[in-house]
Specification:
Largest sheet: 9 strands, antiparallel
Number of helices: 2
Number of strands: 9
Distance between the termini: 48 Å
Strand order of the largest sheet: 4-3-2-1-9-8-7-6-5
Number of domains: 1
Helix content: 10-25%
């Protein structure tokens, strides 16, 4: 696994030497909507939002464990090449192909790889309210199930 990570990092570094930053087009979207299976309801998908300068990002996902139904994960560094957008956090690296939206997750120190598909998020639903309503619905069911 360490060899694979080393190859990926080395490949990313070498690909940056071929082009200067001014030749690499900037990220064209404000956010992505990502899914492992296209039949997955939108409430359970991953949403990646880029900062204005496109140097950091935040992933939002639904979480029934959270009071507001939302789980946040910060990516402290976003790297852009001609081929992909790479997001880095302390324990995860995500790579989004710039031509077809394919996404790969590499969990650092583990063999797990998540593969899915991303598309531009059009801001056509209010995620925070959707997740909050779902969390409230689940919590009400849990309360109703309490017998003792």
């Amino acid at each position: 696994m360490k060899k694979l990570l080393g190859i990926v990092v080395l490949g990313l570094l070498l690909s940056n030497f071929a082009y200067s930053d001014s030749e690499i087009p900037p990220i064209k979207v404000k956010a992505f909507e990502c899914v492992k299976n296209k039949k997955t309801p939108r409430i359970y998908r991953r949403y990646i939002f880029f900062s204005e300068d496109k140097k950091t990002a935040e992933q939002l996902t639904y979480s029934s464990e959270s009071d507001n139904g939302m789980e946040r994960e910060k990516f402290d560094y976003v790297q852009t090449t001609l081929e992909e957008i790479v997001l880095h956090s302390d324990y995860k690296m995500m790579s989004i192909d710039r031509t077809n939206g394919n996404i790969r997750f590499l969990f650092i120190g583990a063999d797990s790889v998540y593969v899915g598909q991303c598309k531009e998020f059009k801001f056509d639903i209010d995620l925070e309210n959707l997740w909050k309503e779902k969390a409230n619905e689940i919590n009400e069911k849990k309360k109703d199930a309490i017998k003792y």
